[in-house]
Amino acid sequence: MADKSKPEARVSGAPRGTSGGTGPTDLQDTTREGISRRRLLGTAGATGLVLGTAGAAAGYAAAPSSAATPLTSVGSEQVMFHGKHQPGITTPMQARGHLIAFDLAAGAGRKEAAALLRRWSDTARRLMAGEPAGSGDTDVARDAGPSSLTVTFGFGHSFFARTGLEKQRPVALDPLPDFSSDHLDKNRSNGDLWVQIGADDALVAFHALRAIQKDAGSAARVRWQMNGFNRSPGATAHPMTARNLMGQVDGTRNPKPSDTDFEKRVFVPGDPGADGGNQPAWMANGSYAVVRRIRMLLDDWEKLSLKAQEEVIGRRKSDGAPLTGGTETTEMDLEKTDAAGKLVVPINAHARITRPDQNGGAAMVRRPFSYHDGFDADGVPDAGLLFICWQADPLRGFVPVQRKLDRGDALSQFIRHEASGLFAVPGGAAEGEYVGQRLLEG
What residues form the membrane-spanning segments (predicted)? Predict the structure, then answer.
């Protein structure tokens, strides 16, 4: 999972409503039509920020100002829909996530796809601002604030043939190669369209999922859908890298926006010609998402001793520090040996193999969700990681690292890749635009 990264512009929000608010970025403490807009003070939990004043539309139904209660910091956090990049890429990890892929319906083409992306973008903008979805809102998120909701849209390889846009399909979207660790279910892989939803409240996230599915109408049908979760903001005494279901700190060496080459590694250049002309113009400021459903064989993993688990990963389980010493962020000493001359970090340790300097500089932002889908007939948990990684080019990011993991990662015997997808995620929509407009109307 990602380390805390620079978020998109965020403001405090207020409950969804229909009764004449001043908009989600209004920072005034006012009272209008009997509805109080109060300051929302408090810490932002995992984000470590102190929130300022509240804004946004009022609740669904007008309530006496004396009964109005400020939202908690978790509910008030808002991520902006419009921007250079789509939300949900550098946004700090959210507590709840839904991934959903669609296939265009028979007979649907470019025109229908454009209308669908226009509807989806409008719905995402409304919901991320803490407003109702529009006509037919289900009231699931009634009383809640934006809760850091993000909705992110992407296009799969098959989308371009379905819409007659093959010439606009990026080379970087070529299908991923086969890996020896793959046990892929084709029915839960790929898709014409992909949507990532994240929020810090489960009902807000589900509300968005339902709205997106309803907006698809007759233009597209659900191909697959997966649900995930992470630690809730504020659950720890101080902001820290999250853990996965193996109990390991996950995401320590993620690229950070403060890195000088972050944009180059994660996003397509604003001038695609700067990348040797390999990227189409409509992908300017976009990114590529690799999505993998990775089942963790927890019964086998939990039989290992603590020492054995740490040697598989190459880091201490307690704090994520490398076995060679220091803290979580200390550089790993790959040459360090013990008194017997044995490498302290085993040659097949997961953390050694995945280091960018061991993979020609290949890097990606990992931003996953954990999942648990119950137990099979033998009582074995169907649980693991909805792995999502972001990069400017998967052929230079995900693929070389996964190929190396395929050749000898100690972790491979405790995981199984069960679904996969690769999606082109265009840059953010400007005011008045919808996501993908430069592709569909270019």
Answer: 40-63
Q: CA separation (Å) from 111 to 190, 425, 428?
A: 22, 19, 21
Q: Is 192 a catalytic residue?
A: no
Q: What angle do CA 252, 258, 261 make, to 5 degrees?
A: 95
Q: Collapse the DSSP code of 401 into the 3-class scheme (helix H, G, I; strand E, B; otherwise coil) and give the result.
A: helix
Nearest in space to 92 (alpha carbons), one of 109, 104, 74: 74
Whole-number percent of the chain with pLDDT over 70: 82
Judged by average pLDDT, the poorest of 3-12, 95-104, 125-134 is 3-12
DSSP string, 326-339: S-TTSPP-TT-B-T
- Write the DSSP assignment of 93-105 as a string of letters: P-SEEEEEEEEEP
* E strands in 44-117: 50-53, 77-79, 96-104
- Does residue 391 surpass a pLDDT of 60? yes
Q: Could you report the per-residue pLDDT of 45-68, keeping only the tens digit for each?
A: 333 333 333 333 333 333 334 455
Bridge-based pairing state of the strands 365-366 and 150-155: unpaired
97 touches 151 (CB < 8 A)? no
Is 350 within 8 Å of 314 (Cβ atoms)? yes
Residue 306 DSSP label: H
In degrees rounded to 5, what are phi and psi of residue 424? -90, 120
Provide the residue ranges of all domains of the chain, joining segments of one domain with +: 1-442
Sign of the dihedral through C-alpha 123, 95, 53, 32: positive
Q: Given the structure tokens 């250049």, which residue do they identify?
A: 269
pLDDT at 347 > cutoff 70: yes
- The mean pLDDT value for 86-101 works out to 97
DSSP state, 367? -
Residue 304 CB-half CA count within 13 A: 19
What is d(CA 75, CA 199) in angstroms, rounded to the nearest whole number? 9
**In whole angstroms, how far apart are CA 410 and each of 146, 157, 313?**
41, 32, 8
**Structural Rg of the chain based on CA atoms:** 22
Give helix 202-216 / helix 110-128 axis angle, nearest 10°: 160
CA distance 133 to 110: 24
Mean pLDDT on 279-297: 97
CB neighbours of 412 closer than 8 A, spacing ≥ 6?
Answer: 181, 405, 406
Contact 388, 422 (CB under 8 A): no
Give the whole-angstrom CA distance, residue 173 versus residue 63: 51
Extract the tokens encoding 264. Answer: 């180059």
Q: Which residue has the higher pLDDT, 234 or 360?
A: 234
* Mean pLDDT across 202-229: 98
Residue 440 DSSP SS3? helix
